[in-house]
Write a structure and sequence with these properties.
Two copies of one chain form a homodimer.
Chain A: E1 9-12, E2 15-18, H1 29-47, H2 73-95, E3 102-106, H3 113-122, E4 130-134, H4 139-149, E5 155-160, H5 167-182, E6 191-195, H6 200-207, E7 212-215, H7 229-237, H8 242-255, H9 265-279, E8 284-289, H10 297-309, E9 317-319, H11 331-336, E10 341-348, E11 356-360, E12 363-366, H12 367-384, E13 389-394, H13 399-420, H14 428-452, E14 459-460, H15 461-468, H16 472-484, E15 490-491, E16 504-507
Parallel strand pairs in A: 3-4, 3-5, 5-6, 6-7, 8-9, 8-10, 10-13
Antiparallel strand pairs in A: 1-2, 2-13, 11-12, 14-16, 15-16
């Protein structure tokens, strides 16, 4: 048995990964090499165009988006055309400055998290137009977004949905249409679609002659869609350099194809996670960027990591906000509480601005020096307490480094999935909640129709449940919520909270 | 042995807690009653004025803030005076509408999370003035806040720090003073302090004759300071009803003093957490408000729960954003991945606005119906997969219910701490990181002073390390970061990333 040390500090695509404060469970060279070659082989097959998402019978092609030469020959023209169309469209919009000055993204999950994170990471007040988002089916939340927006004259809506039938996005679009109509504006003159070719959304946008349409390829999954028009269109419209975003990712892809595990940061990261999670039971991954601009990065990674790996009883739980703020929140638990996590520090080395706050003789200490000191201090304190951590260090939060960071995590997730033998590219568990939700909407129709037959009198929960064959508690909860809503027509003279089978509900046709 | 069922649905202070989808490890009545009485007794002592935070020799009095009759007699006048002073001041400021129209909060951790959460939870565009925050020592982040603010003429700064020496807050204040000076304005005419009486900040504000000062009592901890001037002042300035906020919390306090465990929601919640964490190893608590307005609630709870309970190897890890958005992110893992969590759903029943998006005959389905259906569907799907969850249901996100929710979690945390025998009111682990950070700043002075002695020539890392008695890697990392900073005077002709002991650094006096 020859040993290999996975405690390394390596640099790729402008990102330095430091694993010297990690604990690795395995150091036997031959065992590690076998594990690593299997993961590399799986990734080569994926990049070669295999059906890597077997359940959905799909290829997995997000790596092709940043290096078209790696794509199957028949896909290259399409990839280039989409990117060029995005850039040309954004250029036109940005040149006509008076037409569209603000953007409203309508999308959820993979269609929203990336653009939101990139916007918050890179926006510069005065230069970057404002990006608003409808990323839920919360009507109160939507109302607030429209109140924040005020006038809609200068707003371009970007509707993003691969299949076109995501319910939250459909609802967001329906409400937005209403708002535009109320303002005397035509939604179609303010709308672009980013969607799969031939989807319901694609057809709608085509029929209604929206401002533009951009494709999401079948082989692009939601959580890895940032380098497709899903992420590129908002980025380009906001004035960010999409070429540098793509280049950062492409360079990291190149570096993380390397076969020498100690020189491949994605492999090293995946091995570090594997040691922590599967072998030491440290299932949580705390993302700590010492940088206000990256406060949404952990939310982006939550989806990328948890939706990819959270299956068959496996999973890595991702959370975190930003340092040093979080030191005043949950670092107490990281240092002295349950040892169930790996911490991942992110540090941009260069600040856009800084101020000297202390002078000791000739030596000046700045606001940013304190930020760095808190990072060092916290990592040291965790290390002393036996808590493993990694650090990612890079020059600056910009398009190139953001692209490289995302590519690094994407590939680490892919390798990790190989280690534990799961398909990282589907999300079967999401379907269950959607189906259950559809059943809830069906039940709403059943219950309201039943009450409709008794117009004029209130009926007790037990009676409704018995006649409709439903659980009384479920009947009760649905009707009491509807009784609070203005639009439903459901009435009740009872208390709102608690459960009582004798509670009575009625219906008034509107 | 007589059994007791902890699967309940109970209502207190406008909040309905439903634990019927939880798993409880213990149902033996006498065992539970003993555990519960100990926790209630500890809480009675705390509320009676005992030194409940023994390590810091402090009383713990946040419950007194919302019901002054429960406070020790000698404290009552002070509590009332502080609240009245906050309300009177806010009234004056709000009446002079043209003077201060926007607010800048300078604080971190418990001094920022509460006001940020309340602002995002309750703000109403057009009515609520804007609240900006400096809650970190990130200079790039600060620059962006000032760029967002633009003119400072109408900005009132609220500096919040109990001891007055929190470094991040000091730095935020120093930079803010610079910005006001650069705009030709006097910071003191735009500043109020919320701080402990006699603190360095209190003295500074007094000496410089700031606009106003408000006290933080010694017996108020950062993470439970929302009902002290820390939370009340921003809330009142923003136009929120602080009386209703206090009343919601007071009513919940009253309800959660009850001795019958199945009627005390804080006790039931604490027992549910205890079953999940200590007895079943489900250490994570996922907070899922189906409500855009409560997206920061989990961040608030992260501090309250993790800083209180994360010690002596214990802890509950809190994360979450909002539903149904998170269904498109990590719900996959909750349903099919590691079964290491309890989910906590939050549901406001009434929407401020809603839109009909479907009609099936007479039955209309709204945007909000879908939100509710996704919640029901997701909870059902988790339940079917054997994942325990709770639900908190209430009429509306407003001052009263927010106050009640916070009080509910505060007391549940207190009970839980009793169960596992820890002090919920100190945070010894935070100190280690701060001390380590101070050592880092000292090292910076050592290294720069050393380089200063060699002005004009660059020195290698190994040599610097040997002469200063420091670890070469630490020396290297600090100097390369300083070499990127404009203010430090440290120079290097080398590459930025990676580590090399032969790298050379110099110093140019500015």
């Amino acid at each position: 048995m020859t040993e290999i040390s996975l405690k390394q500090r390596i640099v790729a695509a402008g990102i330095e990964l430091d694993t010297t404060k990690m604990k690795f469970a395995e150091s036997d060279r031959s065992k590690l090499e076998a594990q690593v070659s299997r993961a590399l082989a799986a990734m080569r097959e994926l990049e070669g165009g295999a059906i890597s998402n077997a359940d959905e019978k799909r290829r997995v092609g997000h790596y092709w988006l940043r290096n078209v030469d790696k794509a199957p020959a028949e896909l290259r023209v399409g990839i280039n055309q989409a990117r060029e169309a995005v850039c040309a469209f954004a250029k036109t919009i940005r040149e006509k400055k008076d037409r569209f000055r603000r953007f409203l993204l309508i999308g959820i999950g993979g269609s929203a998290l990336g653009p939101q994170m990139v916007y918050d990471g890179l926006r510069s007040p005065g230069n970057t137009p404002a990006l608003f988002t409808l990323d839920n089916t919360d009507p109160t939340g939507m109302q607030r977004v429209f109140d924040d927006l005020g006038s809609l004259d200068d707003v371009l809506c970007i509707v993003v949905s691969k299949g076109g039938s995501t319910r939250e996005t459909q609802n967001g679009m329906a409400v937005t249409e209403t708002q535009f109509a109320a303002a005397g504006l035509n939604f179609r003159d303010h709308a672009v679609a980013v969607t799969g070719v031939g989807s319901t959304l694609d057809k709608l946008a085509s029929d209604q002659e929206w401002v533009a349409r951009f494709p999401i390829e079948d082989w692009v999954g939601g959580r890895t869609s940032l380098f497709s028009p899903v992420g590129l269109l908002p980025a380009a419209l906001l004035g960010f350099d999409v070429d540098r975003l793509l280049r950062g990712a492409r360079d990291m892809d190149e570096a993380t194809r390397g076969e020498i595990m100690t020189q491949n940061p994605a492999m090293l990261m995946a091995l570090a996670w594997h040691s922590a999670v599967e072998l030491s039971g440290r299932g949580n991954l705390v993302i700590l960027p010492y940088c206000d601009r990256l406060v949404l990065f952990s939310r982006y990674l939550q989806q990328l990591v948890m939706e990819s790996l959270g299956k068959d009883g496996h999973g890595i739980t991702v959370y975190g906000n930003k340092g040093s703020s979080d030191q005043h929140s949950y670092i107490q638990q990281l240092r002295e509480g349950t040892a169930d996590f790996t911490a991942m520090f992110l540090q941009p080395l260069r600040q856009d601005a800084d101020w000297i706050v202390e002078k000791q003789g000739d030596v000046s200490v700045t606001v940013g020096d304190y930020l760095a000191a808190f990072l060092d201090g916290t990592q040291t304190a965790l290390h002393e307490a036996g808590r493993p951590s990694m650090r990612l260090c890079f020059e600056h939060v910009d398009e190139y480094h953001l692209g490289a960071l995302i590519a690094l995590f994407e590939r680490a997730v892919g390798f990790y999935a190989s280690f534990i033998g799961i398909n990282a590219y589907h999300q079967p568990g999401v379907q269950a909640g959607k189906l259950a939700a559809a059943a809830v909407i069906d039940l709403q129709e059943t219950l309201v129709s039943f009450l409709d037959q008794h117009q004029g009198r209130e009926v007790g929960v037990s009676e409704i449940a018995a006649h409709t064959g439903q659980d009384p508690v479920i009947v009760h909860d649905m009707l009491r919520r509807l009784a609070v809503s203005k639009q439903s027509g459901v009435t009740s003279s009872s208390e709102l909270l608690g459960y009582s089978p004798s509670r009575r509900f009625g219906y008034q046709k509107s």
